[in-house]
Amino acid sequence: MVITTLLRLRGFRLLLGTRLLSQAADGAFQAALASYVVFSPERQATPGAIASAFAVMLLPFTLFGPIAGAVLDRWRRRHVLVQGNGLRLLLCLGTAALVLARVPTAVFFAAALVVTGINRFVLAGLSAGTPHVVPAGSLVTANALAPTAGTVATTVGAGLAVVVRLALTPGPQANAGLLALAALGYAASAATAQRLGPDALGPEHPQHLALRRTFADSTADLRSGLSYLRREARPARDALAAVTICRFCYGLLLVTLLMLCRNSFAAPDDQGTALRYLGLALGVSAAGFFAAALITPWATRRLGVAGWLSCCAALGAVLTPVLGLLFAPLPTVIAAFVLGLVSQGVKISVDTTVQATVADGYRGRVFVLYDILFNVSLVTAAAACALVLPVSGRSAPLVLTSSALYAATAVGYFCRSAHHSLSIRSASS
């Protein structure tokens, strides 16, 4: 089996371990942020509050992404992983201290901005380094295994944090404990990445540029990356457009799920029930991620990467209204599984497309652009929910809009992919 073969590769094992530990810590940190913003008894959970939390988690990387692209294509990516996780360790501990000191919410958000800003930087480095530790013929399987396992690790980390949160008395000490849990994960991730060789993850021609020079070149690098996508990497460009729309739909439905769990499936003052519903939905969604990892290598052998991506979007278009319009716990939990399957199937397909069609000298920049689009689409979706979604989470127009966008993506991407005939196939698993 290809998965067994991949796990025999020391470089891939270490990269996978770095990812799992880092993303499990991300889950714990995100749970701490959600606990602070959404599930604190003294704060009312609204779509606007969730949109603010999403902005805190995702916009920092959007602002500094061009610099990250320059770094990933010039500095040794192993060093980026080690130092990025080490910095997050220190910042997590500092944020925990701020929480214990009962600082104003704005100060907490400012600290969280920095921690989460590094998150996507590290994930882009992991994706850009993957082709250096696995054979080209195994990229689909590697992308089915690693990012999906990372997403599951995020869910496990968040779930563990929810258990810890339920066991502790609500308050600053509980939130600080979750942040300390995240710090442990970042420390372990940095230690694992340190075991990789300095040049194990590329780039092929590392440069020793001063940080000031890297900042100066970042704008030009972003322009060159966009120009490269437009002129020489059309399959990657079309795939990025598709995943951006699908991520927007994911954001709409995720905020809807949060509001339903918090305000419709439980009494306003019953945090425990709300957290249990949310934990169940997240666990089932993680099962959907895992199912996508199992199905995608098989599906891409038969349909091609582009065909499978189109099928995932079509599945979202059909099942989103069938399940989502009931606004009841059981259909919502099933919808969470479908949402996990669809979103991860699309992501695996896009990761593979970018890795297989973008030259290594541009891969870091393109993955940074990928993450910027990923983040902006989710924040935009949360902002849209803040404007139109009621506090109860029950909105048929929003669910139908998501379905229509999934359908448009399925048809549009399938037609576009026929022009460039992308046919990346996974090896047998």
UniProtKB/TrEMBL annotation:
Transmembrane segments: 50-72, 84-101, 107-128, 140-168, 239-260, 280-299, 306-327, 333-354, 366-389, 395-415
Keywords linked to the UniProt accession: Cell membrane, Membrane, Transmembrane, Transmembrane helix
InterPro entries per record: MFS (IPR011701), MFS_trans_sf (IPR036259)
Keyword Cell membrane in record: yes
One Pfam short name: MFS_1
Lipid bilayer topology: Multi-pass membrane protein
Location of this chain's protein in the cell: Cell membrane
Protein name: MFS transporter
